[in-house]
Amino acid sequence: MPAQRPRGVSIQDVARAAGVSRQTISNAINAPHKLRPDTLERVTALIEEMGYRPDQSARSLRSGTRRIIAYTTPETDPDNPNALMSGFLEAMVAAAGEAGYRILLVRPRPGQSRARALEDVIAARTADAILLSDVLEDDPCVDYLHETGFPFAVFGRTGPGRPQAWVDVDSAQAMIDLVGLLSSHGHRRVAYLGTSAALPWLRHREAGFRIGMRRFGLAGHEAFVDGLDEVVAVARDLLNRSPRPTALVLDDDWLAPGAYAAAQAEGLTVGADLAVTGFNDMPYTRLLQPPLTTVRLPLRRIADALVSRLLQSVEEGEPPEAGLLLAGDPVLRPSMTTVE
């Protein structure tokens, strides 16, 4: 007779050892948001210690789910990848994995719209839910997914009257806080250098700057650029205003090298004669001299919130009724100065 294959650790074994129900073990693997943090920590540790691994194929057959989240990745230049989106993807993979899900990357074929690529995913039943990012307020993909009833969540805000299954950074408040930080360091004249692209997150930052300037009673000017080749010239123009600003607020870190070059051309030292702040905390901001004060996006908190909302839609059939704003994390570095 062939030797019997040894029986693996079952869910009942783990439940018995933990002194909890089978459902609690199932929730720890499939819906950790349903458990108290102390219970989740204890049960998860025991699952790892006992080496319990659920039968994925059997679970998929029972539940009708594949435990896959499809993510339509934005296009990027492989020779100049977007470090921010790479960090977001890493956070999503980690958050989804802890919930027992995997991330499937989806990119439209040449000439194919993103909505059509989503239609292919739904028709092929290759995923249980879809994650979108870089959406505009009237994004047709949001409307399409809403019409199909397919579970989805969005990194970035959708417009009024559209599904609110989104998570975003409160860019306006983060910019208000930056202006407040400059005010607390004695700055009274602050200039703003922004990007002219009509992207909602950039407009939120611009609006926050203006609110902050009014709230803290500061004076300043604004200017906008279309591309990298304009940054130095436009920044120099701002620094030549009279009276000269003592701080320069950027709506994105990618403007910082040009702003530093403009300051140098005007005989100013960043971190001594001029404060400069950015947004996004891109990796190179720590290598600038001096390192850049900026706002870090809480990517892991964003990913956790998105996965939680996706699981709510997939496993409970209840899509979120309201969007969720998360605070940005200010990062204070030597490009900040104090005005005596």
UniProtKB/TrEMBL annotation:
Alphabetized GO MF terms: DNA binding
Among InterPro entries, the record links this protein to: Cro/C1-type_HTH, HTH_LacI, LacI/GalR-like_sensor, Lambda_DNA-bd_dom_sf, Peripla_BP_I
Q: Which keywords does the record carry? A: DNA-binding, Transcription, Transcription regulation
Q: What residue intervals traverse the membrane? A: none
HTH lacI-type domain segment(s):
9-63
- Pfam families for this protein: LacI, Peripla_BP_3
Q: Which intervals hold domain HTH cro/C1-type?
A: 7-53
Keyword DNA-binding on entry = yes
Sequence segments annotated as region (Disordered): 321-340
For this entry, the protein name equals DNA-binding LacI/PurR family transcriptional regulator
